[in-house]
Target: Retrotransposon gag domain-containing protein
Amino acid sequence: METRHAADLKKILETIEADKKEMAQKMQAMQEQIQELLISQNHGEDSASSGSVNRRGAGSWHPNDIKVDIPEYDGKLDPDEFVEWLRTVERVFDYKQTTEDNKVKIVAFKLRKYASTWWSNTCLKRERAGKEKIQNWPKMKAKMKQKFLPTYYVQNSFSQLHSLRQGTGTAEEYSREFEYLLMKCDVPEDDPQTLVRYLGGLEPRVANVVELHSYQTLTELTLLSHKEVSNLNLILLLARSRRMTMRSR
Model:
C-alpha cells in the first residue's frame, strides 16, 4: 500500500516538474521572440530618428526623438496603480502607433514576477483546453482586468460616480472628479446617460440654465457649465453691488 502511494506521489511530482519545464521553455521562447521584436523596432526608430535629424538639422528637435516605453507590471494588488499602468500602455501604443499584431507580445514581455507567472499559466491552460491563443490587446486587457481589478473597486467607483454632487465645490472641481471617475469605471464620456448624470450632479441653478443650451459631448457640457457659473457669479456680484449702493444712499 505504501509502495503504491509512493509511486503515485512520484508520478504526480514528475508531472508537475514536466509542466514547470514546459512553461519555462514557452516563456523563454516568448521572451526571445519579443526581445527580437523590440530590438527590430528600436533599430527602426533609431534609423527614422537619424534620418529625421539629418533632414531637420543637428540643432533641431522633434517629438519623435523622445524615447518612450511601457513600464513593467508585477501584479501588485493596487487597483489604482493597475488602472494607471493600463492608461500608460494605451498612451505608449498611441504614441508609437503600435500595430495590433504586436501589442500582446510587447505587454507580455513587460510583465514581471506574479503577473508574468499568471499570464504564462493562463496561456498554458488555454492551450491544453484547445482554445485559441489570445492575440489581440482588448481581449488580453479584459483578462487582466478580471484578474487584477477587484470587483469591489469597480463597484465602489460606480457608487461614487452615481452619488457625486457639486455641493459647495466649484464647477471645475466637480468636472475633474466626474471625469476621473468615468475613467475608473471605463464609461464612455459622450454617452447620453453620462451627460444626464453629469447634469444631475451640478448645482441646480447652473444645471437648469445649461439644459437650455445645445450640446453633444461631455467637453461641450463642462465648458457650458463653467461659463454659466461665471455668468451667475457675475450676476450675483452685480446684485450685491447694487444692494450696497442702495443702502449707502
Summary: Residues 152-241 form a domain with the Non-ribosomal Peptide Synthetase Peptidyl Carrier Protein; Chain A fold (CATH 1.10.1200). The two ends are 110 Å apart (CA to CA). The chain has ten helices and no strands.
